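Could someone model pyridoxal-5'-phosphate with this protein?
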Amino acid sequence: MAGMLNFTVGPVMSCQEVLDIAKISVPYFRTPEFSGMMLQNERLMLKFLNAPDNSRCVFLTASGTGAMESCVANILDNNDKVIVINGGSFGHRFVKLCEIYGYNMDEIKCEFGRQIKKEQLDKFAGRGYTALLVNMNETSSGVLYNMSLISRFCKENNILLIVDAISSFITDEIDMAGLEAAAVITGSQKALAVQPGIAAIALAPSAVIRIENNKEKCMYLSLKSALKDMERGQTPFTPAVTTLIQINKRLTIIEENGGIKAERGRIAELACYFREKIKNYPFELVAEDKSNAVTALHPVTCGAKKIVRILKDEYNIWACPNGGGFADEVFRIGHIGHLTKENYNTLFSAFDDMKRWGVI
Ligand SMILES: *Cc1c(COP(=O)(O)O)cnc(C)c1O
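Reply:
Sure, complex below.
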């Protein structure tokens, strides 16, 4: 697996400074030094998200799904009437979570890869809904939802907006204050490009108040205790210490190199480079409006599984397969992690070979 060129959407390739951190023995963490680092992580996360004043950020030792569950469990309760935008496997995850917690929930189903329409939202106006859950980038298709449309609908109807930005943090613009989002969820193994293990949740005061007032339903994923410990830069339980140190390194590097906008620009440029060149190959682009994080492709001339397998076995290149019903219809090429244009050229040479041999 060494030397693989990784175009998946996570875990992705890390820069050398981050890799160097993985080599050290894990330091003890109940120290003022670790607390100071955590508070800096919080500050930078909130800055990069343009979170409103008095927002907080907590770091859970969990994959992104753990943070999705934590938000559903801690911010919402049985008195809520929830809307889930469901346009693929990550939307479906929010649906399942609401079902497990027994909430009153309705879905807005979006066709795979399609943008949400105003009419779809308008049907839910003035009907007593209190919260809306959306995956800003539905990573299974790479569609980037129209967040200003969704946010306007939530503002007009006094609906709490919870955003899964696990694959859109850094890659696409997120103005948490402007959107008036109550919570924004991110994860360590996507564009943060460090090891898996940490999910961060930025919480606006509107979410913090709900968490304080709601009855605690769980222990490990409790945001009430996470918020309390984070006041002093700590976590209730042993965190993925190395991943948190790597996050600190990444956030600091981004801050020192022109900030979030510059890093987003770098990712957008790679996405743009790829999407321009891929026009020369027999693939259809799946998503109507695309996140910079990933491009989902539908191969016209052969199955998606075969392409993913050939890239892996013959070229040491990882493309991202799709699951479920689209497994042989769609595969994805990511634009996150430590990637360069040269890396894409390597991928295109592989596609050239496959074209020459009549595989695609
Ligand atoms: C990756 C991802 C998740 C979380 O996946 P985990 O495997 O639990 O880290 C959730 N939502 C979106 C949109 C994602 O891209």
